[in-house]
Amino acid sequence: MTSRKRTSSSVTNPENPPPPPKKKTTTIASAEDFHLAPPKLGVILVISSLLCSLYLYLLCFRYNVESELKRPILINAGLSLVGFFVTLRLIPVAARYVLRRNMFGFDINKRGTPQGDVKVPESLGIVVGIVFLIVAIIFQFFNFTEDSLWLVEYNAALASICFMILLGFVDDVLDVPWRVKLLLPSFATLPLLMAYAGHTTIVIPKPLVSYVGLEILDLGRIYKLYMALLAVFCTNSINIHAGLNGLEIGQTVVIAAAILIHNVMQIGASVDTEFRQAHAFSIYLTQPLMATSLAMLAYNWYPSAVFVGDTYTVFAGMTMAVAGILGHFSETLLIFFLPQVLNFLLSLPQLAGIVKCPRHRLPKFDPATGLLTGTKDGTLVNVYLRIFGRKTEKSLCIHLLVFQALACAFCFLLRHFLAGWYK
């Protein structure tokens, strides 16, 4: 979370000019004097090794994925790797531009320390979004033909993601009220909903078949409403589970890794061509998301050199929602989002106006010890601190990301034990 600088205008009397303003010492004098801290590539190497090694093993060695599917997946991975380095290069350039427009913030969790007075460039998620779109568009040249059945939905997915990037950046610039933020993803999903030509049926769980009397239920337009609601939840859930350096991007890359592993497992275990194509489609969107996000994480990991802004959080949530919808694993996606679901339930009294909701629902920082203390606000960050005690910001972020990874691992175990019995 950041406290954004706001400029104000006032009318002055020329006969009684105001006293000269007091000089205020700031860490950055101008955008030209700004020097971004170097990316933390060592941290990214460790995180990417932990998250990507299993996925690559399953794709290249564990499952015999046919060449017609493996080739575009590997091409997409190569383009995503290029996107990683392009994002890494563009972030310092974009940081100078946003500083020129006074788009910066101060790290509230470091208030009272020298780091708390540093102007941190904000809304750098726009870089990730743009590079992601370029990679995804270029990939069409290598995989889709003009008469491809998936091309319409692929472009509709990119249109929805692009729409969400635009709305997220508008939010960063205009500071849109949170009640309006809840509605923004509804508009961004319109291209996807209009172009969606997939099935609108759900498989009834086997224990409920005798009560419902059906094995497959066609929801029709209600299914599209469900798709829209899922996109709204995923988009906003990443946005409200935030406030720590690296947490927004960290949770995204953990979930993205789980999505990739799930997709390749489903491809390897199925013989249905359309089913395998749907999961490959999800991979085509998730690999660029993960690569560009890791590049941003190199600058956003504690202590953050840049802030991603709402542009990134809504973009990441929409991308994963689209990947889950068109990959036909929305139930699994919701379990991957278990910490976000828990955070939403904890936040519900404040979001609904039952309990007073401050602008920044952050823990309390003690500059003397450098530790965070949980407040009474209903967020997973504060509840975790109240249960397990005070922690440093970096330690707390790592704990929450481990919890995110455990939630994803729980999803895989749940699917394993319920296979054949639930569906």
TrEMBL record:
- Predominantly, its location class is membrane
Q: Coiled-coil regions in this chain?
A: none
| GO process annotations (BP) | dolichol-linked oligosaccharide biosynthetic process
Could you confirm whether the keyword Membrane appears in this record? yes
- Membrane-related topology note: Multi-pass membrane protein
UniProt cross-references to InterPro entries, sorted A to Z: Glycosyl_transferase_4, GPT
Any idea where this protein resides? Membrane
GO molecular function annotations of the record:
UDP-N-acetylglucosamine-dolichyl-phosphate N-acetylglucosaminephosphotransferase activity
Instruction: Give an example GO cellular component term for this record.
Output: membrane
Q: Does the keyword Transmembrane apply?
A: yes
Which key words tag this protein in UniProt?
Answer: Membrane, Transferase, Transmembrane, Transmembrane helix
Annotated region (Disordered), positions in chain: 1-26
List residues traversing the bilayer: 41-61, 73-95, 123-142, 149-170, 182-204, 225-243, 249-269, 281-302, 314-338, 396-418
* Protein's name according to its UniProt entry: UDP-N-acetylglucosamine--dolichyl-phosphate N-acetylglucosaminephosphotransferase
What species does this protein belong to? Brassica carinata
